[in-house]
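Record minuted for completeness.

…
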Amino acid sequence: MVNIEKHSGVYTLTASQRLPISLEEAWSFLSDPHNLSTITPKEMGFEITSKTGHNTYEGQIITYKVGILPGIKSSWVTEIKHLHAPYYFVDEQRIGPYRIWYHEHILEETADGVLMKDKVTYKPPFGILGELAHPWLVKAKLLKIFSYREKVLVKKFGEMSLNEEVLEK
């Protein structure tokens, strides 16, 4: 489930997904920078350009190239601002296509797996032009990215059965 709301001139995207895996397995996959290309749509041409290990750590700087429009790639630099393994980490844009990008990755252990939650606070670039383009460009792209990620994670790890979800409510 993905939702985007606007408040005080910025947007907040929230997403959640249940996975039938252990907290440790979820953390191992999601905190490895090399898996970002796996969960990003191929047509975006996502590539990490900095040397990174397989473990995320607080203060880590990661550089990328990513397609923002067909035929146009942007450099993106993020810093891992906060980290409390295996429960959450935050990446914040230092240089990139957004005026603001603050992405909280949260993992919660449940009786039958993991609840993965994302909260992205962002502001599009280009002032009023960015605001006008938000619904059909930025918002549409983010919804596509998170939808793609959800499908990839279900294919890799499986999905919660309806009965499991109903029992938790």
Notes: The longest strand covers residues 72-84. The beta strands are 2-7, 10-19, 47-48, 61-69, 72-84, 88-95, 100-110, 113-123. The CA atoms of residues 31 and 122 lie 21 Å apart.
